[in-house]
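Pilot study result, target chain (136 residues):
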Amino acid sequence: MSFPYLRSMIKWIFTLFVVLPVMISAQKEIHLKRKYLGKYKGEIPAYNIDTGEKIMRVSSSAIYVEIGKKDILITVGNNKLIGTYKVMFKAQTYYLVDATIEGQLATERIIVYKRGRKIARDGMYPQPVTSMKKYK
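Predicted structure:
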C-alpha cells in the first residue's frame, strides 16, 4: 500500500520546522553594544596618488570618528561627513560596519574591535588603512 501524499507532507514539515527557523534567525539585525559607541581619533598616514602625469604626495591628516546609536560622524581635517551605518556581521573579535555617507556613492568600511577600545577604517584606494583609539 502506497501513500503518495506522505512524501509531500514530510517535505513540508521538514521545511516548516527546520529550514524556515534557520532562515528567520539568520536575518536578525546586529547592533553595536553601547561600549563600542563613542569618539575615536587617529591619523591617516601619508600616501601617494598617481595622476597619470605625475605622482603626488598627500600628507598625513588627523581623523575623528564618532559612532552613535544610528549615525556616524567622520571628520577628516576640516571636512565633516555625516551618515548612517549598518553592522554587516559580527565576528569573534570584531564587528564589520558599513557606513553610508550623505552625498557619497561609495561606503566607508570600519572594523570595530571587541578588545582594545580601537577601530580601523579601510580607506578608499589609495588611502591606507587607519587605526584609531577611543578617547573621551
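One observation from the pilot: The longest helix spans residues 4-26. A full batch analysis is planned for the follow-on phase.
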